[in-house]
Amino acid sequence: MGTLPARKNIPPWVKVPEDLKDPEVFQVQTRLLKAMFGPDGSRIPYIDQVSKAMLELKALESSDLTEVVVYGSYLYKLRTKWMLQSMAEWHRQRQERGMLKLAEAMTALELGPWMK
Length: 116
Description:
Blueprint: E1 24-29, H1 33-37, H2 44-51, E2 54-59, E3 65-71, H3 74-109
Antiparallel strand pairs: 1-3, 2-3
């Protein structure tokens, strides 16, 4: 996804400072970010608005993981974290199935012993 977008504003539904004190944090494979959040995080504002939470992405050094930080009221944070973890798992499984289909297609296209 390239560089992660920096947070420039706090949405009006996030109460300062109480909603910023104890965020929910989890990690997502960096390769899934574009599928989940769109190119350059273009879907993050929409997800923020629909979930009534605020997301922040933090790249972890020397890792293929990105930290997702969710701010908001207690229930909105938990619901948003669950939704995003479910999305990540769905996209991960989808990519795995695609790789399996690719491997099967490549195996099917291999030349038989008489063609080598």
